[in-house]
Amino acid sequence: MFETWLDTNVVRRWNLRLNTAEARKFFKYVQDFKLKIFLPEVVLRELVQNYADEASECRRKQNELKKSLAKLGFSVDEGKGDAVPGNLDDYFHNLLTHQCAEKSITVVPLSKVPVERLLDMAIKRIAPFQQKGERGFRDALILFCLLEHTRQPKQGPVFLVSEDKVFKEESIGVLAAEYGVDLAVYESVDTFTTFLDTLRDQLIQGMKRKQAERVRAFLREHTDEIKRFIQENAEFEEAFLSGGLFSGAPYLGTIRRVGNIVLKDIAKVTTIQEDSGEQGIVTVLITFEVRLEIELETEKLWVPEEPKRYRVGQEVEQIIPIFRPQLQMTRVNRAVVCEAVAKERTEDNRLSDLQLKEVKLRANPFEALRVP
């Protein structure tokens, strides 16, 4: 479960209910990836102050509007009361705290980093303190809040979504490493969710590779059964075996007999899982390639000797050479595709009950002829 931290400039883009389109998108990913969301206390306080300042400005404009309407002779109904609550700080703090609880966002208290360290970093202009100006104290509180909370080794990186470029400074990464934190910073929700999409694709591909390797090992335990199934059910086309024009393999001649078949390897396994109707069991549809070495007896036309050459005017006794059939044994490498069904226990991914269903030539027989 990945830890993800949010900065003020990200949450401020949303509304108080945290349900804008971007917020809904973000929390959908939170649910899909089971992310743990954290908000530094300094961010919560800053959000409260921002909303309180905005509401105060609205109240001031509201009062000015009432005065302007009164000067124009309009009466202002005072009976309905003021729409803006009296204590703005408490109002927005309670509202945001409630929203965080609803969204399972953990508010983390301020870190206990010594003031002397912050002062030293500020004087030396060490990030997140800016090289110019006096900015950086707020960012330092966010950073140390994150580092102090996650300083023990974690499984995987810790994510911070913030528009502040200072968090991508090299010195920030060095400081995070001192705390044993693998910190990854993303400047927006879009870049963060794009990363998660890529991560999901990688995880899916990794799971597919592991599943394919597990199934391949299972199939290799049944090589005798697979070989017997191929011998009893496969029908090889002559062009598939003998090669020739456009096939990518030399022409071997007319096939007279197919001899022994040796199963060389099982490759290119793909699987699809379906509900088996049994609790704890899934049905696995398996498609796999079997690479074979096939013994063939072929017949080629053979010229017993080179045709004689004659000069102009010379008497010709024989013009057409005599071709004689010649039988020869050879071995070729070919590949076929098999389809099978097995059962898999969800508890330990153990496979059983292999049932071979079909064997067929590859869709592109010429490609099969080039199998090493």
Key descriptive features of the protein:
2 domains, alpha/beta, 9 strands, single chain, 372 residues, Rossmann fold, 4-stranded antiparallel sheet, disordered C terminus, 5-stranded parallel sheet, 11 helices, 40% helix
Describe this structure in words.
With 372 residues, the chain is of the alpha/beta class. It folds into 2 domains: 3-76 and 83-200, Rossmann fold, CATH 3.40.50; 213-306 and 321-369. 40% of the residues lie in helices and 26% in strands. It contains 11 helices and 9 strands. The protein has a 5-stranded parallel sheet. β8 and β9 (351-361) form a beta hairpin. α3 packs across α4 (88-102). The longest helix has 32 residues, at 189-220. It starts with a strand and ends with a helix. The model is unreliable at 364-372 (pLDDT under 50).
Number of helices: 11
- The level of helicity is 25-40%
- General form: elongated
Percentage beta strand: 25-35%
Over the alpha carbons, how many angstroms does the gyration radius reach? Answer: 38 Å
Topology of this protein?
Elements: E1 3-6, H1 8-11, H2 21-33, E2 36-40, H3 41-71, H4 88-102, E3 105-108, H5 115-123, H6 137-149, E4 158-161, H7 170-178, E5 183-186, H8 189-220, H9 223-233, H10 238-242, E6 254-275, E7 281-302, E8 324-345, E9 351-361, H11 365-369
Parallel strand pairs: 1-2, 1-4, 2-3, 4-5
Antiparallel strand pairs: 6-7, 7-8, 8-9
Quick summary:
This is DUF4935 domain-containing protein. The strands form 2 sheets. A 5-stranded parallel β-sheet has the order 3-2-1-4-5. It has about 375 residues and is an alpha/beta fold.
